[in-house]
Amino acid sequence: MLLVLCVCMVLWISFLAIYAVMIKRDRNRMIERNEERSDFFARISHDLRTPMNVIVGMLELARQSESVDEIRENMKTARSSCRYMLSLINDILDMQKLEHGKLKFDRHIFCIKDFIENVSDMIKPAAQKKNIRFSVEFEKFNPDRSILEDELRLKQVFMNILSNAVKFTPENGSVVLSFETVSANDKTERVKIQFRDTGIGMSRKFIQNSLFTPYSQELNRDTERSSGSGLGLSISKNIIELMNGSIDVQSTPGEGTVFTVCLDFTFADEVQEKKTALESDGGHSGALNERIKGARVLVCEDVELNSQILCRLLENAGCIVTAVKDGKKCLDAFSASAPGAYDVILMDVRMPVMNGLEATRAIRNLDRPDAKTVPVIAMTANSYESDKEECFSAGMTAHLSKPIEPLKMYETVARCIKK
To answer: Within 13 Å and on the Cβ side, how many CA atoms surround 108?
Structure first.
């Protein structure tokens, strides 16, 4: 009996010891994770305030200036800072989508050569500023073709890796983007894409333990002042893996880094390419302007400044605009108008009195011929897939995420209206 009690006591003590070790390990992980998040929020707070300070300063200088050229230059700088600030916000939102399994892909046909040129155009200014030689190489790879992929997500991966390459490469260094076909069949090619730089490199420990961890950055005398969310590479790795690809990193401190990404490109056939070319031509330039010009637009936006900006952008494109401040006023304006008075409605979603979803449902339920057919375009800062589905379920025709991009708004209006 005594022996049994002793054995039970030993087992109980062992269990408590193991449990204590597990609790301590989990506690240490939690502390480490909280420290990473705290460091992330400290950096993101600094990084958001930095471009905001530039925006406020440039706008004030533009207000004080009487020179058109100087005003344009100030506005150009402010716009560049806005785009950088938006990229930081998008990183945070994308990380949330990935953590909740809500990141979706929108595959369409686009030309590889145009894609590479667009990425290069965005990278070259930063490279030229540091006198970094940026080049693109092809090995058994033909860029003069079109593929069926998510262009935006692919561009996100390229920009994250290339931006880091330029950021962490000293002056007079080099950054090389290369493409090589590894294998191919009738419809797909396995493509090896390398991003090579002569930058400061990374330690093996950081690559193995932290490189693709959210919020992480390797701190040393060269990187401690670097801006960024620390989310870009983690997001890129997730995107690549969701595209059934792989990413590998080789780096030597003081010598440089090589990121190797392998992806399967699905190539479009000639019929698809011709269709895409026709749609692209019809969605831009003169054809787009002609379709928008004279369009009667009902804008529903509760924030006065946002409403003014939307109205001016639409009027500059030749639209005839009526503005209201909430969903109830939108419903009343549409109900009081003659059938066919409006070609399209731009509807904010979050509004007082009656929100955009309620207003759209009410319009669709009206007993008049155009109630079911008038295009209603959602305008909202909510860009999750579930938010879009909610808009479409309410009867909306299309979805625009805020901040609204003028060209995208024009294209969406042109696509929705029937003239």
So the answer is: 11
- pLDDT tens per residue across span 340-399: 899 999 999 989 899 999 999 999 999 998 999 999 999 887 666 677 888 999 999 999
Backbone angles phi, psi at 182, to 5 degrees: -90, -45
> Coil, strand, or helix at residue 192?
strand
3-state secondary structure of 382: coil
> Is the Cβ–Cβ distance between 283 and 411 less than 8 Å?
yes
The CA-atom distances, in angstroms, between 146 and each of 184, 190, 269, 271 are 15, 15, 8, 11
- d(CA 250, CA 207) in angstroms, rounded, equals 9
The per-residue pLDDT for range 228-269, each reduced to its tens digit, is 556 778 888 888 998 899 999 999 898 999 999 999 998 876
- Residue 218 amino acid letter: E
Phi, psi of 405 (to 5 degrees): -90, 120
Under 8 Å CB-to-CB from 7, ≥6 apart: which residues? none
pLDDT grade, residue 101 (50/70/90)? low
Residue with tokens 């402010």: 78
User: Using CA atoms, how far apart are residues 325 and 264, in angstroms rounded to an integer?
Assistant: 48
Question: Where does residue 169 rank: exposed (0-12), middle (13-18), buried (19+ CB within 10 A)?
Answer: buried
